[in-house]
Amino acid sequence: MLYNIFPNNDIELNKCIEEASKEYSGFFNIPNDEFSVCVFSMKKEIFDEFKSIKEDYVVAFACPRSNIIFICNHDDIKNIYNDIEYKKLIKHEIVHVYAYMYVNFNKYVPNWLHEGLARYLSGQMISGEVCKDLETLFNDNILPNVIYSGGGIFVKHLIETYGNKKFLEFFNELRNLKSSNEVSIIFMKHYNKDIKEVLNEILGENNK
Ligand SMILES: [Zn+2]
Fold first, then answer.
1. Segments of the chain assigned E as strands
2. What is the model's pLDDT at position 29?
3. 1, pLDDT greater than 50
4. Are residues 88 and 123 in the same domain?
5. Of the N and C termini of the chain, which has fewer Cβ atoms inside 10 Å?
């Protein structure tokens, strides 16, 4: 069989999923939702291919609209994800389930915001993390490392400087987006600052 469907008999995995679910339903203040977790196993030759890419999204991903997350069996990836990192990987995908629900699955919410939030809340960010090309965060041709790392740095700054409440008010209103260009307008409304000005705050701090 390719995968097991939650609930399964992996006690540690179940515990991690339950705790994360509680944590994020609390953060977003929405009810605990039911979702499925499919644990898949990866053939060694595929894994060796992926190991060279070493990006989280090849070993775990979420399909929030269908309320399913897919996670590679820990045994298959133990040499690159220790117990702690593996838990963060699961938490990251669970953040996606709740965050997408929170913005009512609006497709214009930028990826850097979803990925940044997932990295920040799951504890995947490295302390003092810097991102090369952070200044390209709002560009249309944004690079994957900027989506993940840059997004995380931006969200961390927003939440730690201006608080959870403001962030959630801003994020919640993104459910009404009719194009991704409107993000900056909604940002301005809640933060009373241009989104690029806030990015410059971060870039300025990094250059100190
Ligand atoms: Zn993600």
1. 3-5, 36-40, 60-63, 68-72
2. 93
3. no
4. no
5. C
- The number of helix segments (H) and strand segments (E) in the chain equals 10, 4
Residue 179 has pLDDT above 50, yes or no: yes
What CATH number did the domain enclosing 2 receive? 3.30.2010
Q: How far is the CA of 111 from the centre of ligand 1 (A)?
A: 9
Residue 55 alpha carbon to ligand 1 centre in Å: 10
d(CA 101, CA 23): 15
Quote the percentage of the chain above a pLDDT of 90: 60
Q: How far is CA 85 from CA 110, 112, 122, 148, 181, in A?
A: 25, 21, 10, 16, 34
Global pTM reads: 0.90
Ligand 1 centre distance from Cα of residue 20 (Å):
15
Say whether both 4 and 95 belong to one domain. yes
Q: Which domain holds residue 46?
A: 1-102
Point out the domain boundary residue: 102, 135, 152: 102
Between the CA of 208 and the centroid of ligand 1 the distance, in Å, is 30
**H or E stretch including 116?**
helix 111-121
In the listed set 81, 102, 123, which residue is the last one of a domain according to the structure? 102
Rounded to whole angstroms, the Cα distance separating 96 from 98 reads 6
